[in-house]
Design a protein that fits this description.
By secondary structure, the protein is α/β, with parallel strands linked by helices. It contains 14 helices and nine strands. The structure holds S-adenosylmethionine (SAM).
C-alpha cells in the first residue's frame, strides 16, 4: 500500500486479466446513471476517474476519462471520450481544471485513497461525486454474512469507510442508493435476489472480488450455495428477497460540494 505506482500497475493488471467481458456484465444501470447525472448538477466539464469502459459518463458534458487498464480502455464505445491512461494518485490534469469529478466503483482499487482524493480535490472546482459501497452495510448481506465473510474482511481494508470520506471531503452528503431487483450493473452484491447468477463464471469474471480471494475459499462457498439452492435451503431462508423490488446492500452516493 505504500508504493502507489507499483500497486496502481498491479490493480490495472487485475483488470487487464478480468476485465475482458466487463462491458457485457457490468452494463450501466439506468437508475444509478440518473442519480449520478443529477448529482453532477450544472457541471459542464466532468472528469471520470477509474473510468473503465465509460459506464455512467454523461454524453451531454465535456468528459475527460482517466483509466489505468488498456483492456478496459479498449472496451470504451467509439462515441465515448478518449481515455487518458493514468491513475487517481497522479492525475494528468491542471489544478482546478474540471467542474466536477466522478469516481464510480473505483476507489477500492486505488493504491492510495488519500493521495487519490488529494488529486481529485486539486483538479476539481465545484463538486466530487462518488458511487461506492459502505463496507459495514455490505457485510450484512447474505452472501457476505452467510457464505463468504472473507468478502467483508477484504472490503473493509479496501473500501474507504463513510467516516473516512466524511473526514476528508468538504460538505459531504452521503445518500443510500437501493439496488433494484433487476439491476443491470452486475457488481458482486447486485445479485442479492438472484443467487443463481453468482454461480455463473461469466458473471463472476467481471467482479474483482472473485479473483482477489483465495480460489479454494471461493470454490467452497460456491459449492455450498449451489447445494443450498438445490435443496431449497437458500429459498427457505432468503426466498422473500426474490419478491422484493430493491434492497440496501450498502451502495452509497457521496457528493462533496467544494464551493
Ligand atoms: C469496477 S471498475 C469501475 C469502472 C467504471 N468506473 C464503471 O463504473 O464501470 C474499477 C476501475 O478502477 C480502475 N482502477 C484501478 N486502479 C486505479 C487507480 N489507481 N486509479 C484509477 N483507477 C483505477 C480499474 O482499472 C477499473 O477500470
Amino acid at each position: 500500500m505504500n508504493n502507489p505506482s507499483s500497486r496502481a500497475s498491479w490493480t490495472a493488471s487485475v483488470y487487464d486479466r478480468i476485465g475482458l467481458n466487463y462491458s457485457q456484465v457490468r452494463r450501466p444501470d439506468p437508475r444509478f446513471e440518473a442519480a449520478i447525472w443529477n448529482a453532477l448538477g450544472s457541471a459542464k466539464s466532468v472528469l471520470n476517474v477509474g473510468a473503465g469502459c465509460g459506464s455512467y459518463e454523461p454524453a451531454d458534458r465535456e468528459v475527460t476519462a482517466v483509466e489505468p487498464s488498456p483492456v478496459m480502455i479498449a472496451q470504451r464505445p467509439e462515441s465515448a471520450a478518449p481515455a487518458i491512461q493514468g491513475a487517481a494518485e497522479a492525475l494528468p490534469l491542471r489544478d482546478k481544471s474540471v467542474d466536477a469529478t466522478m469516481c464510480v466503483f473505483t476507489m477500492q482499487h486505488w493504491d492510495n485513497v488519500q493521495q487519490g482524493l488529494d488529486e481529485v480535490l486539486r483538479v476539481t472546482c465545484d463538486r466530487v461525486v462518488i458511487l461506492t459501497v459502505d463496507p459495514d452495510v455490505m457485510a450484512r448481506m447474505w452472501l457476505c454474512n452467510e457464505y463468504l465473510p472473507e468478502i467483508g474482511e477484504h472490503d473493509r481494508h479496501t473500501f474507504p469507510s463513510m467516516e473516512y470520506l466524511e473526514a476528508r471531503l468538504p460538505h459531504l452528503h452521503i445518500g443510500t442508493v437501493p439496488v433494484p431487483a433487476d439491476c443491470t450493473d452486475g457488481f458482486c452484491i447486485a445479485f442479492w435476489n438472484r443467487p443463481e447468477a453468482i454461480l455463473d463464471p461469466r458473471v463472476r469474471q467481471a467482479s474483482s472480488i472473485w479473483h482477489l480471494l483465495p480460489a479454494v475459499v471461493v470454490e467452497e462457498a460456491l459449492a455450498r450455495l449451489h447445494r443450498d439452492l438445490e435443496s431449497g435451503d437458500w429459498d427457505r431462508r432468503f426466498g422473500q428477497l426474490r419478491r422484493q423490488a430493491a434492497l440496501d446492500v450498502g451502495l452509497r452516493l457521496a457528493v462533496s460540494e467544494l464551493t
